[in-house]
Amino acid sequence: MIGTASPVPPTEGGDPPCWSHLLEDTREDVVDRDDIELLVRNFYRDAAMDDVLGPVFEAAHVNWNAHVATLIDFWAWQLLGEPGYGGQPLRAHEPVHARTPLSHSHYERWVELFCDTIDASFQGPCAEIAKGRGRKMAAAMERLLLGVSASGTAPIEPMWRRVDGAPRDPQRRCSGRI
Which of 23, 97, 119, 151 is deepest in the core (most CB within 10 A)? Predict the structure, then answer.
Protein backbone atom coordinates (compact mmCIF):
# COMPACT_ATOMS: atom_id res chain seq x y z
CA MET A 1 0.00 0.00 0.00
CA ILE A 2 1.34 3.29 -1.07
CA GLY A 3 1.26 6.13 1.45
CA THR A 4 0.37 3.91 4.38
CA ALA A 5 2.69 3.83 7.35
CA SER A 6 3.82 0.44 8.40
CA PRO A 7 2.51 -0.67 11.76
CA VAL A 8 4.81 -0.21 14.77
CA PRO A 9 5.93 -3.59 15.99
CA PRO A 10 4.62 -4.44 19.44
CA THR A 11 7.12 -4.15 22.29
CA GLU A 12 7.97 -7.22 24.20
CA GLY A 13 8.39 -7.66 27.91
CA GLY A 14 6.29 -5.13 29.83
CA ASP A 15 8.15 -2.73 32.18
CA PRO A 16 11.34 -0.99 31.14
CA PRO A 17 14.52 -2.62 32.42
CA CYS A 18 15.52 -1.92 36.02
CA TRP A 19 19.14 -0.95 36.48
CA SER A 20 19.07 -0.65 40.28
CA HIS A 21 20.91 -3.94 40.71
CA LEU A 22 23.90 -2.33 38.99
CA LEU A 23 24.09 0.51 41.53
CA GLU A 24 25.91 -1.05 44.44
CA ASP A 25 25.56 0.61 47.85
CA THR A 26 29.14 1.44 48.79
CA ARG A 27 28.39 3.09 52.12
CA GLU A 28 30.40 1.66 55.01
CA ASP A 29 30.23 2.12 58.74
CA VAL A 30 31.87 4.93 60.70
CA VAL A 31 35.18 3.34 61.68
CA ASP A 32 37.76 6.04 62.30
CA ARG A 33 38.48 9.70 62.89
CA ASP A 34 38.55 10.43 59.13
CA ASP A 35 34.96 9.17 58.87
CA ILE A 36 33.96 11.37 61.78
CA GLU A 37 35.62 14.39 60.19
CA LEU A 38 33.69 13.74 56.96
CA LEU A 39 30.45 13.44 58.91
CA VAL A 40 31.03 16.60 60.97
CA ARG A 41 32.12 18.74 58.02
CA ASN A 42 29.25 17.60 55.81
CA PHE A 43 26.67 18.06 58.54
CA TYR A 44 27.75 21.50 59.70
CA ARG A 45 28.20 22.75 56.13
CA ASP A 46 24.57 21.87 55.51
CA ALA A 47 23.40 23.08 58.93
CA ALA A 48 25.07 26.48 58.46
CA MET A 49 23.17 26.95 55.19
CA ASP A 50 19.87 25.51 56.43
CA ASP A 51 16.84 27.82 56.56
CA VAL A 52 16.03 26.80 60.15
CA LEU A 53 19.48 26.25 61.67
CA GLY A 54 21.58 28.70 59.66
CA PRO A 55 20.30 31.85 61.41
CA VAL A 56 21.24 30.36 64.80
CA PHE A 57 24.82 29.79 63.66
CA GLU A 58 24.93 33.23 62.06
CA ALA A 59 23.78 34.92 65.28
CA ALA A 60 26.32 32.91 67.31
CA HIS A 61 29.25 34.11 65.15
CA VAL A 62 30.70 30.59 65.11
CA ASN A 63 34.45 30.22 64.67
CA TRP A 64 34.09 27.27 62.31
CA ASN A 65 37.71 26.04 62.49
CA ALA A 66 37.61 25.76 66.27
CA HIS A 67 34.03 24.47 66.37
CA VAL A 68 34.62 21.71 63.82
CA ALA A 69 37.78 20.56 65.63
CA THR A 70 35.84 20.40 68.92
CA LEU A 71 32.99 18.50 67.28
CA ILE A 72 35.36 15.97 65.73
CA ASP A 73 36.86 15.41 69.21
CA PHE A 74 33.36 15.06 70.69
CA TRP A 75 32.15 12.49 68.18
CA ALA A 76 35.47 10.59 68.26
CA TRP A 77 34.94 10.31 72.02
CA GLN A 78 31.28 9.30 71.64
CA LEU A 79 31.74 6.77 68.84
CA LEU A 80 35.32 5.59 69.03
CA GLY A 81 36.07 6.06 72.72
CA GLU A 82 38.99 8.34 71.93
CA PRO A 83 40.07 10.61 74.77
CA GLY A 84 40.54 14.28 74.05
CA TYR A 85 37.13 15.86 74.49
CA GLY A 86 36.76 17.67 77.79
CA GLY A 87 33.86 20.00 77.22
CA GLN A 88 30.29 20.15 78.46
CA PRO A 89 28.24 20.19 75.26
CA LEU A 90 24.91 20.87 76.92
CA ARG A 91 26.21 23.80 78.96
CA ALA A 92 28.19 25.15 76.01
CA HIS A 93 24.92 25.91 74.21
CA GLU A 94 23.40 28.05 76.96
CA PRO A 95 24.84 31.31 75.53
CA VAL A 96 23.53 30.37 72.06
CA HIS A 97 20.07 29.75 73.49
CA ALA A 98 20.18 33.04 75.41
CA ARG A 99 21.03 34.93 72.20
CA THR A 100 18.69 33.02 69.87
CA PRO A 101 16.13 30.94 71.79
CA LEU A 102 16.02 27.44 70.39
CA SER A 103 12.56 26.03 69.71
CA HIS A 104 11.43 22.44 69.33
CA SER A 105 11.58 22.91 65.55
CA HIS A 106 15.32 23.69 65.82
CA TYR A 107 15.97 20.38 67.58
CA GLU A 108 13.76 18.45 65.17
CA ARG A 109 15.56 19.94 62.19
CA TRP A 110 18.98 19.28 63.76
CA VAL A 111 18.12 15.59 64.26
CA GLU A 112 16.61 15.26 60.78
CA LEU A 113 19.63 16.82 59.08
CA PHE A 114 22.10 14.90 61.28
CA CYS A 115 20.49 11.54 60.51
CA ASP A 116 20.19 12.38 56.80
CA THR A 117 23.89 13.29 56.70
CA ILE A 118 24.86 10.00 58.30
CA ASP A 119 22.60 8.01 55.98
CA ALA A 120 24.06 9.73 52.91
CA SER A 121 27.58 8.45 53.62
CA PHE A 122 27.43 5.62 56.15
CA GLN A 123 25.59 2.47 57.13
CA GLY A 124 26.18 -0.01 59.88
CA PRO A 125 26.06 -0.38 63.65
CA CYS A 126 28.22 2.64 64.46
CA ALA A 127 26.21 4.85 62.10
CA GLU A 128 23.04 3.74 63.91
CA ILE A 129 24.66 4.46 67.28
CA ALA A 130 25.64 7.92 66.04
CA LYS A 131 22.04 8.67 65.05
CA GLY A 132 20.79 7.43 68.42
CA ARG A 133 23.33 9.54 70.29
CA GLY A 134 22.40 12.58 68.20
CA ARG A 135 18.72 12.10 69.07
CA LYS A 136 19.52 11.72 72.77
CA MET A 137 21.83 14.74 72.74
CA ALA A 138 19.17 16.91 71.10
CA ALA A 139 16.50 15.79 73.57
CA ALA A 140 18.79 16.35 76.56
CA MET A 141 19.83 19.78 75.30
CA GLU A 142 16.24 20.81 74.74
CA ARG A 143 15.28 19.73 78.27
CA LEU A 144 18.30 21.43 79.86
CA LEU A 145 17.85 24.72 78.05
CA LEU A 146 14.14 24.77 78.89
CA GLY A 147 14.88 23.87 82.51
CA VAL A 148 12.88 20.64 82.36
CA SER A 149 14.02 17.50 84.16
CA ALA A 150 13.90 14.17 82.41
CA SER A 151 10.98 11.97 83.40
CA GLY A 152 13.24 9.14 84.50
CA THR A 153 11.24 6.67 82.42
CA ALA A 154 13.60 6.60 79.43
CA PRO A 155 15.70 3.43 79.33
CA ILE A 156 19.39 3.86 80.03
CA GLU A 157 21.60 2.16 77.49
CA PRO A 158 25.22 1.23 78.06
CA MET A 159 27.64 3.57 76.31
CA TRP A 160 29.26 0.68 74.44
CA ARG A 161 27.11 -2.12 73.05
CA ARG A 162 28.11 -4.93 70.73
CA VAL A 163 26.11 -5.63 67.61
CA ASP A 164 24.75 -8.80 69.24
CA GLY A 165 23.40 -6.72 72.15
CA ALA A 166 25.96 -7.72 74.77
CA PRO A 167 27.86 -4.97 76.62
CA ARG A 168 30.90 -3.80 74.69
CA ASP A 169 34.40 -3.49 76.06
CA PRO A 170 34.85 0.30 76.46
CA GLN A 171 38.30 0.05 74.88
CA ARG A 172 36.78 -1.12 71.61
CA ARG A 173 35.38 1.21 69.02
CA CYS A 174 31.75 1.21 68.10
CA SER A 175 32.45 -0.50 64.80
CA GLY A 176 34.11 -3.41 66.56
CA ARG A 177 37.56 -2.50 65.26
CA ILE A 178 40.36 -1.36 67.52
Answer: 97
Percent helix, percent strand, percent coil in the chain, to nearest 5: 55, 0, 45
What pTM value is reported for the model? 0.73
Residue 103, domain member (yes or no)? yes
Which residues touch 103 (CB under 8 Å, ≥6 apart)?
none
pLDDT tens per residue, range 95-134: 888 888 899 999 999 999 999 999 999 999 999 999 999 9
CATH number, domain containing residue 33 = 1.10.490.10
d(CA 99, CA 42): 25
